[in-house]
Amino acid sequence: MLKKRIFDYHLYFKNRTKIMRKTTLSKFHIFHYKGIFLLFLFCLGCSMTFAKEVKINLLKETSRQQKTVTGTVVSEKDNLPLPGVTVLVAGTNNGVVTDFDGNYEIIINEDEALLEFSYVGFKTKTVPVNGQKVINVSLEEDLASLDEVVVVGYGTQRRQNVTGALSSIKAEDIITQGANTVEKSLQGRVAGVQVESAGGNPGSGVRILIRGTGSFGNNSPLYIVDGVQVDNINNLAPNDIASMDILKDASAAAIYGSRAANGVVLITTKSGKKGENRIDIIAYYGVQKIANKLDVLNASEWATVSNAAHDNAGLARLDIAATPASLGIGTDWQDEIYRVAPMQNYNISASGGGDNYTYSLSGGYLDQDGIVKETGYKRYNLRLKSSFTKGRLEVGETVLLSQEDWRNMAGGWGGQGGNPVGSAPKMIPVFDVYNEDAIGGYGGAYGPVVNVANPVAQLYLEIPKTEVKKAVINTYAQFTILDGLKYKLNAGYTNTSGYDYTYTYPYEVGSLFTNLDADLYEGRYETKYKLLEHTLSYDKNLDKHEIHALVGYTYQDTQYRGLSGSKSGMPSGVMVLDAGTTNIASGSNAWENSLISYFGRVIYSYDDRYTVTGIIRRDGSSRFGKGNKYGNFPSIAIGWNLSNEEFFNSEDSFIDLAKLRASYGVLGNQEFADYRFSPAINLNTNYVVGQDQHLWPGAIQMAFATPDIKWETSKTLNIGTDLSMFDRRLQITADYFVKKNSDILLQVPIPLSTGASGNSPYINAGEITNKGFESSLTYKNTIKDFNYEVTGTFSSVDNEVVQLGTGSQQIFGGQPTHHGASATVTQAGLPVGAFYLIKTDGLFNSAEEVQAYSRDGKLIQPNASPGDVKFVDYNNDGQIDENDRQFLGSPNPDFTYGLGGNAQWKNFDLSLYFQGTYGNKIYNGLRQDLEGMNLEYNYASSTLNAWTPENPNTSIPRAVINDPNQNARTSGRFLEDGSYLRLKTLQIGYSLPKDIIESIHVKKSRIYLSADNVFTVTDYSGYNPDIGRAGSVLDRGVDFGHIAYPLSKTYMLGIDISL
């Protein structure tokens, strides 16, 4: 009967498939992820229906032979109930899980005589049924299994034997963060890992820095997802993650060699568990609002300040500012572009397994509108992970499919004021948003002022979109040759295809911003990544000796190809390139690189007291010339578990674990552009020849060959300790490290006469050192019905440039818009991107003070007047210029920290997390615009407190147009303290009581309220002190204002159900 029902069901499913194929397959693109997503949900529903049919028929077939066994599972040590214990009928997939009170109920056949009870941290126990109806079980604590297993490169390891610097985050920590991207859940939770926001825009990633800046190129860590390298993890659904393990020192990361100089983030997605078939549904709905708006002038206030500025400059007042009192509030341009934005997320997963297989599949959908109007982000996720074992062979796979759709924020028009976020606070509030007589229908610029683009017009007249589809596929086969000896073949493939699109309607917003023709840009690209790995591992325990050995070979290849095109002149609303007639442009790009590697690792442990780990990896990269393609990267680490020594072993001791660790290793870095070792020739250059000025085709060298460039090298010394006390309730980890990065690639300046000055050759000439201390602490306890946990992290890194080529070479960066000089410098003896500015010394309060500020009878600031800024003549040459710049601070914090807590009382739970930084500086480029008088923008509200003879006790200089003293020049005046403390997350949840969930036949049902970015305590006057910067490390800590997307507060209501 069962076989017949299964057969009938499959025939029915096949018929349904044929029907769907006839009617819809022609409309589906093979990589149309929306269609795949719907098909996945359909298949999942069919699978659930099939499972239900099978279950019903199994029950019918066996109902006469079944009986019910109940009981309670407790801890042998303290007789407390154990929730979550797996109770499995031996040799079958028939199993249940104990409830919160340790109770279980399972239906078995009389001839199935053995029950297996298993739980993490306890020894598995097998009990014969022997006709019993009630079986109560006490489980013995397994001290060996209590030692957490963590993921390391190409395998797992007991934390007790880990000798490197490694931190872990589990699934429950990720979920309670409420983050919609995986990377954001790391912020403040991992010692030694600094996570900076790349903006609050929907779908934005973050900038992750592990143990300081070590290169002038790419400082991002290596991401490995289920064994496959990925360029970022922004596309992953947080609910799909089982754990994240961060490898921070050379010993822990050396197995990845040249890819691991910036640290490694190992991500393991969720797997099914044998005997535990379940369906999980997680969903939330939320709203977002801007966390902080800038305080700028309204129309009446702006006119008042503008008039004073013109009067002080001896210039005629603006017509639009003639009668300040009559202008009122005017247009609040920030209110015009910001909104309260909804977001929603849904994730459904099914997982389980039997004696020889496991499976886990899930689908997710995120829809997030941006707090800036006309911006948003959508993400679709599908995931399949399974394994199958037959005898000595195990095979498995992970398939991750995703599609991300962005509605981006418009860019700058005419180079004036950047995107709408930068334009809104600077837009003069007397202007109207709309003008029906103008092309495009928007108001704006006024002739006598240097104005910015209408930010509302930018949002609605420019439509930038991005679509990224990604498929990550990893398959493996593992064969056990002998007991302890295993061979594993791992093959991975990643395909990323992207599409960028920007359409701009015709517009006329005053004389400064005119675009009479519609414009269209389209770009497409595809990246293919291939991985093939062979590993041979050997594990052996012999009395007190434990050996783990691994050797392997890896081949990786990455290919990229992109093309783009743009045109203007198409009819308004016609968004097709062929409709354009003018400004025709096209371009393409392609590159490829390969990496082959040989590696080996040996871990030896004696009596759980002494552990030695040795690693060697040899990498060969196509990014280097002949003779430099290969690099060797070794490491050695030792660990001493003092708590297992006889002199430490005491029944009265409150210390459970006391371990010392030390390691030293060498890593390489080759994460920079391809073909730098090779010259480049432009064959499309025309030369002017002869008296007739004829054009002759020719060639020019665009880039010089640098065949001697080699690996950037990172050498790390790490000393650490792990402590566990009071029956493992208190756990402390602390590490001190010194990381020296040498042979860093730098560009060598060459004369303009070479014709290739924009592509200067590279040499290995830089050296950067990072020294630091990091620590993490966890304390957890139970008092009757109340469980709680407190966690804390602390990190401090001292960054210094040791060498920058020869002599006193300097690299400048962080140049604010409209204000000329750079804000940062990188040179020997200072941190990377140090703030290098002219120092200020208050304001001149009288003409006498201006006259007294002189050298050798010459005024140091000849254009100054009372109320102007006094700048420090640092080099004492009698004038103020760029030579007076000095080191005024670092963008790097003195330390970063995180402090969190979780608590459960009966059915209620609470989690909250604080994080922040201390001691870092931020250059506020947007305030430089809003307080400056050299450009007639709207002004910051602080200018109402500008210096006047009647108001001398202020830090705001006098209001004066054209700024003759250059009060708004790039200087220490705009350098602010970037320290902050933020309540990052707050979540309150309630789980339905046992009797209710049993009555509705579910395993868990929880509802929660969550808030993100609840409040921030800071002295920084910009949008957000956590400004981040996705570009050059030289710009870190510079708030350009017109680039960032403000941070949002988020409030969510969610449910978490398990069936």
UniProtKB/TrEMBL annotation:
InterPro entries: Beta-barrel_TonB_sf, CarboxyPept-like_regulatory, Plug_dom, Plug_dom_sf, TonB-dep_OMP_SusC/RagA, TonB-dep_OMP_SusC/RagA_CS, TonB-dep_rcpt-like. Its main location: membrane. It is a multi-pass membrane protein. The keyword Transmembrane applies. It is found in: Cell outer membrane. One of its GO terms (cellular component) is cell outer membrane. Keywords: Cell outer membrane, Membrane, Transmembrane, Transmembrane beta strand, Transport. Residues 160-264 form the TonB-dependent receptor plug domain. NCBIfam families: OMP_RagA_SusC (TIGR04056), SusC_RagA_signa (TIGR04057). Belongs to the TonB-dependent receptor family. This is SusC/RagA family TonB-linked outer membrane protein. It comes from Christiangramia fulva.
